[in-house]
Amino acid sequence: MIPTKNKHIIEWVDKIAKLTKPDNIIWIDGSEAQLEELRKEAMSTGELIKLNEEKLPNCYLHRSALNDVARVEDRTFICTKNKEDAGPTNNWMDPNEMYEKLHKLYDGSMKGRTMYVLPYSMGVIGSPFAKYGIEITDSIYVVVSMAIMTRMSKDVYDALGDSDDFVKGLHSKAQLDADNRYIVHFPEDNTIMSVNSGYGGNVLLGKKCFALRIASYLGRQENWMAEHMLILGVEFPDGNIQYISAAFPSACGKTNLAMLIPPKIYTEKGYKVWCVGDDIAWLRIGEDGRLWAINPENGFFGVAPGTNAKSNPNALASTKSDSIFTNVVLNLDDNTVWWEGLDKNPPKNAINWKGEKWNPDDGEVGANPNSRFTSPAKNCPCISKEFDNPAGVPISAIIFGGRRAKTTPLVYQSKDWNHGVFVGSIMCSETTAAATGAVGVVRRDPMAMLPFCGYNMADYWQHWINMGNNIKNPPKIFNVNWFRTDDEGNFIWPGFGENMRVLDWILARCNDELDAVESPIGYIPKSDDIKLEGSGVTKDVLEELLYVDKDLWREEVANIKEFYSQFGDKVPDVLLEELKELENGLK
Ligand code: OXD
Ligand code: MN
Predict the structure, then answer these.
(1) Residue from 252, 275, 382, 428 carrying the catalytic annotation
(2) Is 209 a catalytic residue?
(3) Looking at domain 7-30+69-222, what is its CATH homologous superfamily?
(4) Are 47 and 427 in contact (CB under 8 A)?
(5) Atom 3 (ligand 1): residue with closest C-alpha?
(6) For 201-210, what is the mean pLDDT?
(7) Least distant ligand from the CA of 372
(8) Which ligand is nearest to the CA of 204?
């Protein structure tokens, strides 16, 4: 039975069914009974493997195709009528041309399969912050994963009523043909089309495709912001909680920071950190003139390798039930999972992510480096009490950051909002040995949104500036770098829970409790103001961490000019003035 009378949904589903020609259509209602039936079916085909019910209740393993294990940025498109609206950092094709191309790929792509229609909400259903999506897919893995990552429920139909205000997402695995894999956004039509992939980041359309690319486009029109940011709350000993959002490029530790456990000198006094979100924040101006954030997601899609009881015990605890693991090692002895960096005891009787018998002594990794856990946010021991608050949380500080060996100090504060936008626009990370290609190459990733901005990046900067003009009490903006090294390339800041010491300084600055040293790049902490007790970091090392090398920054200015030049005269004047001021300050 069709659970909605919304004619926009019914007509669209009908049109897609005629195109993709599935054997049958199942309307997903989000109920546990229906999900359980689908899991059973997926187990019978090997799409899901049930794990040890005692040790990992209601957990499953899934393997994606060997050639399909990560987001595909070179096959991700923003199709707006005008090329300039997508900007120089997005792939673009004329929408009509792209629709034609995709229609050929979807034609009959669901023959012999079932088509699932799933209603979901980003944000609490019924709240003014929420946005709705309908995803059509031929993958049970997508259905059961979306049930974790979003609020997937037939209640979305009630919330939508007759409205056409929902994001249409069409996904088909088709033949999993890498040469015809496309992840395409039509922001002007509220539409996403994904074909020939089965990997989470390409097919769980609520996440990067909707909550960042489409949502950033909508945010510009509706005066809000969709950002690649974690959200956390720091609880002070008196019970007061202040909230921070932070943007780092992929694989720079957002999930770890979002769930950090403070060092003893803080926990002893009663400090706690609460996680609101680990990847995406939607930010709006509240009636009180502050910026308020919600996490539109309902779960974590975290990188498994490196997650362990020391690096992130809260993330690990989140995976202990009701989770789906993708492309990790299967331990045949007890039907549990393993990945590099979980512990020092790789299973001897095991299957690797490729589905082959695996021996840890053979030298090959067992889990794909981008293997994932998909876990409900509610499982996280430090999930914020405000997680389900439709109003979200008020943000005191915004943090940008990246991976820099030398140039960027441990932390600095921007001079004001516009300077903060400049700091975000020049964000970057240096490539590491973990990826192919040269090491230490600077990749600019403004606001960590390079792969996720649904429109021209220069217009996006202007939107940030415009937002700042309308926020009466804007958050203060900071930049951090946990990855500074000595001359031998060793990290000199311990990171992880110790990052609390930097958050402490940041909030003290927000609360006007500390002075700072002015430098050409912004305000730097006085070295006495970062608490070091119990960190193992000496005062000398801290001074090195805070040092601003003007020669390196002069090189940085040249590199920023080159980066900005691709946007032509669209770069906001405000940012060009900030760049000039930085250059003058370095003379
Ligand atoms: C992610 C990413 O999966 O940023 O969150 O790549
Ligand atoms: Mn991310």
Answers:
(1) 252
(2) no
(3) Phosphoenolpyruvate Carboxykinase, domain 1 (3.40.449.10)
(4) no
(5) 201
(6) 97
(7) 1
(8) 1
